[in-house]
Amino acid sequence: MISGFVRVTSRLAFVNLAAAFLAQGALAQSGEVNVYTYRETKLIQPLFDAFTKDTGIKVNVLSASSGLEQRIATEGANSPADVLLTVDIGRLQDAVNAGITQPIQSDVLAKTVPSQYHGADNSWYGISMRARVFYVSKDRVKEEKITYEELADPKWKGKICIRSGQHIYNNALIAAYIAKHGAAEAEKWVAGVKANLAQKPSGGDRETARDVAAGKCDIGVGNTYYWALMNDVDADKKAWADATRVVLPTFKDGGTHVNISGVVLAKNAPNKANAIKLMEWLVGEKAQKIYADMNYEYPVRAGVPVHKTVAGYGKLTPDTTPLAKIATFKKDASTLVDKVGFDN
Amino acid sequence: MNSLATHDSLGSDDAPALRRGIWRLSAWDVAGFGIAILAALLVLAPLASLVWVAFQDETETWRHLAAYVIPVALRQTAGLLSGVAIITAVIGIGTAWLVTTYEFPGRTALTWLLPLPLAVPTYIVAYVYVDVLEVSGPVQSALRAVFGWRTPQDYWFPSIRSLGGAIFVFSFVLFPYVYLATRTVFQLQSASFIEAARVHGARSLNLVWHITLPLARPAIAVGIALALLETLNDIGASEYLGVQTLTLSIFTTWLNRGSLPGAAQIACVMLLIVAGLIVLEQMARRRRSYTSSAQKPHPAARIRLQGVSAWSAAAACFVPFLIGFAVPAIYLVQETFERSLLTGFDPALARHTLTTLTFAACATVLVLAIGFGAVIAVRLFRHRFVAICVQIAGIGYAVPGTVLALGLLAPLVAVDTAANWLTQSLAGVTVGLIVAGSGAAVVIAYVVRFLAISTGFAQAGLGRISTEFDDTARMSGAPPGMVLRTIHMPLARPAIWGAALLVFVDCLKELPATLLLRPLNVETLSTYIYQYATRGNFEEGSLAALMIVAVGIIPVIRIARHADLAIEAAGPQVSTE
Fold first, then answer.
1. Do A78 and B432 touch (CB under 8 A)?
2. pLDDT, position B4
């Protein structure tokens, strides 16, 4: 019996072995670029397909949720990675700090991307933007404007839903708060928000909309594109979008917290020229329209309109604190969440 | 192997390899020692690289972790583990005892339905039950409709997103580890004990307490240990249910504090817990160990239940299957049809399925060969060093996939660097990352992760076979190969099948290490589902989840059948009469 099993499996293995194991053999040829990414394949595949159609350059993808910097670092000189495409400023900065990147020399990128969304020495570039906003109950919340600071106001006691404070989206928001008000104020704020929670932080951004719709809480914290996807794309989640509306919060004396998706160029990129071509293409008109229309993100390129659902949130005024500065408080924000016991 | 103590007591003059001296090692000795050392090295390499990383850091991180992170994580983890241990033991032993001791309606079907929850990844079950039991889910909606409640504030309902919820989800997915390990032993238990006891008027429960359970203790210990280690390894479900386990803390420390050393430090704390679990398991096996005598073990006749007790037994076995398998599976089927995932079939899924099967099959074959080889080596050579190697090989199972993948990267790249240096100096070409950058990395990670399953099963399965067989055979001049072929393999067949099933299915489900180590453009079914899950849209991956389940079901059903056949087949060969 075991031999039968071995026979069947080994035959199966043989068929597929070549495909899975020889993937490496196709690397480092002239017409390719290798992208390591934290973005979901479904989200970025349309972009890569369009890029291949325009340029004839094949895009090989490795998507993961964590550890790609570590993988590139360990792979060392033989690493096939050309581009690391990721969300969250903290992760871009981590990659730079890990010494796995090289400066991106491109006039196109320098001209197209606003300087607020560059790294020092062109170490990273932002490609698209998203804001961290509130999904509020249409019935129970009348306020048109709410500040981030007000999340800690006792009047919202038992009315706030949010995902884990350690999630990168919240981590960056708390880091931005530290950048604005300092660590001591931020600690008070995080503790205040914790005191207002309707339930333990858990789930994802969509679930906060669901919980608001179900009456568990009045304010959910989420990213701009999730609400648009629930409203326009996910038919079964339309009810959650219908019961809520998006409020673009601001800091008391500032704008809305915006994070980016962005790129770095790998230090040992075997296809460097193609990598730069891809990055330049990603901030071009066509790609930026895809980011706006299919992913519901804010384009980083001036003149490309946002999707009308996203436009319906109102006019976005991004906070002006440089993202690079926010990134430096990433670790402090994480420490703060532990210290306050936000997730416990 | 029942316990190390047994073998120590045999004394070193009973260790053939040693006695003969190093210059007269036979090919069998080399193979035996080699495989045991290989098993240990596979696990030690990533761990050593991990410990090395843990000491790369300033003590500041450690102070923070010790003050704020580790105490909470330890408490939550302890709560989770104790809950899961108790519930999996109750369900697993209870159902195994019922289906092997009694005859009741649906028993035959239930024997192979009960292991099915193993085919569903824990994180998927967590997603499903959050949808089913949350405020807007069908259960609470129905309750509101029936009782006329309007808002969630009108009534109390336990939250699935809690420690209790996590214990519920983990227990009903993982109890088959205990069920499978225990049932195999219950079936093999020589009827002579049980019949003798029955003749002497022992009542059912007494019988269980004094005969059945003590005899099955090694297997129960393996089953519970596997369930707990699996719990300890999880990230997806605990994160979604909001339980701050040690593994989750490793993850957040690494990601948000950008501190791999910090993550490695928590991982080391976790390894201590694992070491503790392993010691406990060993003690559970050692305190009383039995081997069956060299008589033909034949299954005891089952007692036919009537009326209420028959239906109660059926219900008691059906409910765990319902919660652990039927509800999640029905939910996935429903989502698949609702979203017309079948008509809009993603052709890439076929390729991902084949990739998944390939990785799982390669890993299963390797795990079985190395795991059973090493345990048999312990038996043949009865040398403490070999036994220690096997102990070490068991640790890999406890290392969270993510951490294991990180630990593996450095050793794998070192192999590649050596290979490149070799090809460069011999042929003047470089071959790139042929191990770290290919599917081999994924397979190696699976082997390291799941080696403990085959060594655990091999120890439980072979441990029941008295070494008097080996001694008799060896004394009459049979070489190790013949002992292996004629005694160990046939007797261990149910255990081999059990291990093959669990390893194969675990490989199908594995997510964190696969995510981190797979080559460019390669997806498995779990990484495919994960893409949707990270977008908060896991229902779109329902078809892929069903495919994991479907592929997993086949070995589960086969194993249930073959384990029975193997027991019958094994009977006559054991006989020394």
1. yes
2. 32
Interface test with B, best of A166, A212, A217, A342 (most B CBs within 10 A): A166
Q: Are B128 and B331 in contact (CB under 8 A)?
A: yes
* B439/A202 touch (CB, cutoff 8 Å), yes or no: no
Angle, CA of A74, A78 and A80, to the nearest 5°: 95
Amino acid at position B341, single letter? L
Locate tokens 């091999």: which residue? B458
Q: Chain-centre distance of CA B473, in angstroms? A: 33
Phi, psi of A197 (to 5 degrees): -70, 140
Could you give the percent of chain B with pLDDT greater than 90? 19
Across the interface, of A75, A229, A331, the residue whose CB is closest to B433 is A75
pLDDT score recorded for residue A100 = 94
Which residues touch B15 (CB under 8 Å, ≥6 apart)? B381, B382, B383
Whether this prediction's pTM lies above 0.90 is answered by: no
> Can you tell me the distance from the alpha carbon of A165 to that of A172, in angstroms, rounded to the nearest whole number?
10
Domains of chain A: 29-129+259-308 (3.40.190.10), 130-257+315-340 (3.40.190.10)
Please check the confidence at residue A309 and state whether its pLDDT lies above 90.
yes
Task: Name the packing angle between helices A168-181 and A183-196 (round to 10°).
Answer: 130
The ipTM, to two decimals, is: 0.72
Strand intervals (E) in chain A: 32-37, 58-63, 83-87, 101-102, 125-137, 160-161, 219-223, 244-247, 258-266, 298-299
Under 8 Å between Cβ of B533 and B236: yes
Q: How far apart are CA A305 and CA A299, in angstroms?
A: 7
Query: Phi and psi of A118, rounded to 5°?
Result: -110, 155
* Domains contained in chain B, CATH given: 4-574 (1.10.3720.10)
Query: B325, B117 in Cβ contact below 8 A?
Result: yes
Tens digit of pLDDT for each residue in B492-544? 777 788 788 879 988 998 988 898 888 888 889 988 887 777 666 778 888 88
Q: Band the pLDDT of B567: cuts 50, 70, 90.
A: very low
